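Appendix B: complex inputs.
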Amino acid sequence: MMILFRTLLLLLLGSTLVFGAEVSGRVVLQDDPLAGVTVAAWSDLDFSGEPVASSAPTGGDGIFHLDLPPGDYALFARDAGRGLFAFYGRNPLTVGTEKVWAGLQAVRVGTIKLEPYDDEYSAAIEGTVRHGGQAVAGALVYLYLDVAEALKGQGYRMSAPTGPDGFFAFDNLPESDYHLVARKREDGSRQGPVRSGDLYGIFSGNPLSARAGKVVAVELPLVVKQQDAASSETFGRSSNTLVRGRVVDTAGKPVANLHVFAYTDRVIGHQRPAALSAPTGPDGRFLLHLPGGGTYFVGARENYGDSPAPGERFGMYEETADHGLQVETGASIEEISITVETIQLF
Amino acid sequence: MRRSFVILLLGALLPAGCLGTKPSLHLVDAVVEADVVWQGEVRIRGVVTVKKQGRVVILPGTKIVFEPVDRDGDGIGDSELLVEGALLARGTAEAPILFTSGAAEPKPQDWKYLYFDFAKEAVLEHVVSEYAYSGVQVHFCRATVRDSVFRYNVDGVRFSTVNIEVAGNRMIHNTHGLRYEERGSVASVHHNDIRNNDIGIFAVTRSKDKATIARNNLVDNRNYSVKLGIEQREDVTLPYNWWGTTDGEQIAAGILDRRIDPQLGRVLTPAPLTGPVDISRWREEKVP
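Resulting structure:
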């Protein structure tokens, strides 16, 4: 009996090593569990190719299970028969060796129309952003040429905010395939992570082919971003290249609710940082996951995206002249301190 | 660059004449963390940073020469003066302070910029800044830029998120005479000669029309006297400027705004002046 137990244990451990972890979750349409859909995992956010794994169809509770080796995956589900498309709101999902929960939200797939465009040498994309069937005003639609940046950042083009009719348009586009994402942030910002309560959506027909002399018109349904752990409201993914420390004010007191950022460029512009921490706690402590080794220009601020604004608390790492911090891949730098001050122009 | 800072405690330096043709000071990727005075000739190679606790006073007639090095091969020189502390460059009309290229045949963007970033003090008076990517860039601080010349740069004067007065200057022969992103700035740009640039004023983005840009000469700029960036969707108002004409259509013809791209805001030019502004009178003349 003991030999059998050990054998089973070894098999179990072995399978864990091979499969990494179980990913489970629920697929919902609005607030209702969605039965009969197959959730699949892709190696990136381009779901036009073959997935690396697929679940069995969900049951009445909308629950699915996938066993995946460690790595990053994008989870989507599609039901062509019922015209449904579902996505995980925090794609890509990092799978390690522990069980992971990942909920997918489904939307109804809209129509795609092709019409003549008055410029035979360029293409156009236009459409309507909706939520719950209603047009969404103030949403931004982003075009990405590929999924290399996980459909984050400003992308190739960003639309003007949609009007009350939810309409957006991109004119004079080169012929290409485009990935469309729409976001409406409650705070009105144009950049930064989508937070719980914001609206967002990935176009079910990605990548969308735009051809010269044609306008392709689409519908882009959004969902409400669900509550996440604060650590997910960051750029970048979990990694083993870490920086820990504290954010303090000029009196040395800890400062809460600030993000620590890391740029790879010395002149931090309006672009997306390479990494952004979750907000500091009451003790001012932060943990920053870096994408790998290198030199990062590190600081702390209240907001993210765009450049700092008057009234915002801001500070840079001051232990080097250029604010740069060198980190080896897989290394952990501990106990750095960043002092912030309020930006005042007077 | 770890904390092996060069701490410059030299104070007042020897007059350049005492050293023959040698510069008074040659700085290579240096850091200034103390009070110093520059005079004579100061040569800069790489990045010289005036840290928060540093304060540089540049005396009239000083020549700051940026050696032309392009470490990243992007075609833009990498020598620069970055000020996070204080820099007071007060020249005189007779003895201006010169920021220039060290190239044998100087050209725009031989060096990167004089860059104020969260600076404690930023004062430029009677300086000449030439052959840089940006003659001066000012961000996140209070600054005055007066009675100076910015020429043969990509950007003559450039700022964002500042409290700044730009008065009595000549911004000439640059790609952009003035380039700015308002971003909450308190900016007063007046009594400047902005001429013979490709573009006189480039309002890139995030302008909420709060900056005062009045009593300037905006003439003889080659492509546009004013251009809005592709994300500048709000109107920008530039009242009481001299455009070389009072004819609204002619003024509009030199502006890139909604009339050319429907997605942009408009550039409004109310009350155009009927003749050139005497920029030397910026102290006496009230800005509307």
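The helical segments of chain B are 248-253.
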